[in-house]
Amino acid sequence: MNYTSTRSKIKSISSAEAILRGLSDDGGLFVPEKIPKVTLDEIAALKDKSYEQRAAIILGKFLTDYTADELGECTELAYNFFDVPARVPVAILIQDPNNPVAPVGEMELFHGPTSAFKDVALQMLPQLMRMALTKVGETKEILILVATSGDTGKAALAGFADVPQTKVMVFYPDGGVSKIQRLQMVTQRGSNVNVTAVRGNFDDCQNGVKKIFGDTKIRDELDKLGVKLSSANSINWGRLVPQIVYYFSGYLELVKAGQVKLGDKINVSVPTGNFGNILAAYYAMKMGLPIHKLICASNVNDVLTEFFKTGTYNRNRKFHKTITPSMDILISSNLERLLYHETNGDVKQVARYMNELSSTGKYKIDRKLKERLDKIFYAEAVTEDETLDIIKRVYDSFKYLLDTHSAVAVSALSKYRGKTKDFMPVLSAGTASPFKFTGAVLKALGQQVDGVDDLKQLHLLNVLTNINVPKNLAALSTAEVLHSDVCDFDEMPERVIKFAGK
Ligand SMILES: *Cc1c(COP(=O)(O)O)cnc(C)c1O
Predict the structure, then answer these.
(1) What distance in angstroms lies between residue 326's CA and the mean position of ligand 1's atoms?
(2) CB neighbours of 403 closer than 8 A, spacing ≥ 6?
(3) What is d(CA 207, CA 459) in angstroms, rounded to the nearest whole number?
(4) What is the pLDDT of residues 357-375, one digit of tens each?
(5) Which of 98, 156, 204, 220 is 20 to 30 Å from the Cα of 292, by its Cα?
(6) Domains in the chain: ranges and CATH
């Protein structure tokens, strides 16, 4: 299986190369030349396997330059630190036909070391990268630069800590992340990690990182130190491909729980930001997993909902800060891959749309493409009040506690069911532990939390619901602070070079 670009006909490359390079030189994203097929018998054969074994087999369909043993090793190392044996369990919320808020399966993607779904991919990417270095004969050290508004930074640190031949450096806005998010990062252990606060906001951090990536002088200097830059954000194929696995795994969990007969179709609901998670569901569907509809759930930053409803993608709009910060995004980068596949690889058309997006902030897809997307996707936007309301209703009905992002997916699903009367079983993506967003979750449950310290809120939520605080979060109050670097925007390049030379 080889990889090509979404924006021009390039010489195809191996998956190891795609993972190391991240982005194509023409600005496009790497995509598989064709989507591999999986038969129902092959899916059935995964039923009694562990998550790691399921992962190695599904990944093997795409990463054909890795051996089965290598993928087995990668998956063992990646998922070792998940705090439940199932790795990605599915909580069955008993469906009541009179109660359309009930999804059938809440897929818990948050049992990794940082309690958010990004772990599923960011625990795997470093393993894939480490092996890719050997495969392509790269001898330089890889320095992963991350700008974070909170969650990605910690997940990248946890994934890359002490991985040979790699270093990871995270910039976050000083005073711009929650206390828990900051503590998660500044207490990170590992001999190859650095965490630096930037006096500025998230955009400053991101612009600083982008500038460093584009600066040939800095790259030359790093080259002399034997270091090459790379990124761990969700446009990297190595971050997307591990996410395809859990749709297969989640489907099989529904089968095992007797909610679905093997071969029956399900719907999938995903709280969407950068369009990575739902795109992974799309790949699973195209491979042959029986999926009827993909429900793309947005918060009030509803650029994707508008796109699927009207065919126009328009980022020229007000940006809202919400209680679902990981979905506060106006450019959903991974949509480009969907456009590529659904135009049958029409790179000229994709390049045209992407050029229009960067020059005018919008583009309109043609009717034929719109009709194709209509068959696969249903999109719905959810307000903050609706998000809080569904957390309360699901908790009252099932004693099951959703985080705010996961709640957006369930709320969109409930709207979908109300409008279409399609009550097919659903796999809904649970993307974070409710303990990562305690303020909003406590508020949803009717608690007054203004002015209450973040760490106290963890305790309050535990007392109120009797649900255990995830270990990694509970440990924060006593963990040793190991990183206290702060710099100005202008100082970012020198900090990178200093860390690279260490
Ligand atoms: C990143 C994130 C999302 C959005 O996922 P995308 O792949 O960017 O669409 C949703 N929920 C949580 C908790 C996240 O961290």
Answers:
(1) 5
(2) 110, 430, 431, 432, 433, 434, 436, 437, 441
(3) 37
(4) 999 999 999 999 999 999 9
(5) 98
(6) 122-236+481-500 (3.40.50.1100)
